[in-house]
Design a protein that fits this description.
There is one protein chain. With 65 residues, this protein is an alpha+beta fold. The protein has one domain. It is built from three helices and three strands; from the N terminus they run E-E-H-H-H-E. It has a three-stranded antiparallel beta sheet. It is globular, with a radius of gyration of 11 Å. The relative contact order is 0.23. Bound molecules: zinc ion. The site of zinc ion has 8 residues, from loops.
Length: 65
Amino acid sequence: MIVDPVCGTDLDHFEYPQREDYNGYTFFFGSLGCAQKFRENPAKYVAGREAEFGEKIPDYVEKIS
Ligand SMILES: [Zn+2]
């Protein structure tokens, strides 16, 4: 299940074009506003909980954006 870490929205049934990579994980957002908040201070939203909200980026694609 994908959850927007900023507002807590369950994104299962959404398209989520807004995404940000942080600390080896990709996070998804329901809106540009949430993505921007996250970008300003990602640690505030997911510090220590990356695995809970994010999707792990495999090492072999880490350099591809
Ligand atoms: Zn949101």
